[in-house]
Amino acid sequence: MWALLSRHLRVWLLLAVGAPLLAWVLGRIGEAIERRRGPNVLSRSAQAGRRFLERRTRGPLRRREQPDPDRLAR
């Protein structure tokens, strides 16, 4: 069935559903590692992956960023 969907619809589905879920999983893994062992390379990499995916997510599951009040005051 996946092959029957248009390329644009497949990309949208990956970005709208897959990326937010993967970002959530990476965030949870990074937090769990930090709780057990403290900040380390693996936990920072998982958190960086979460932030990377959140910036590239589209659709209804996208996390909306709050504007930085310090930046707006300048």
Helix and strand run: HHH
Straight-line N-to-C gap: 52 Å
**Percentage beta strand:** under 5%
Total of helices:
3
Mean pLDDT: 82
List the keywords.
0% strand; 74 residues; flat; mainly alpha
Structure description:
70% of the residues lie in helices and 0% in strands. The chain is mainly alpha-helical. It has a domain of 49 residues. Helix 1 runs antiparallel to helix 2. The longest helix has 31 residues. The protein is flat and about 45 Å long. The chain starts with 6 loop residues before the first helix and ends with a helix. The mean pLDDT is 82.
Brief summary of the model shown:
The chain is an all-alpha fold. The chain has helices spanning 7-37, 41-56, 69-73.
Give the arrangement of secondary structure elements.
Blueprint: H1 7-37, H2 41-56, H3 69-73
Helix pairs in contact: 1-2
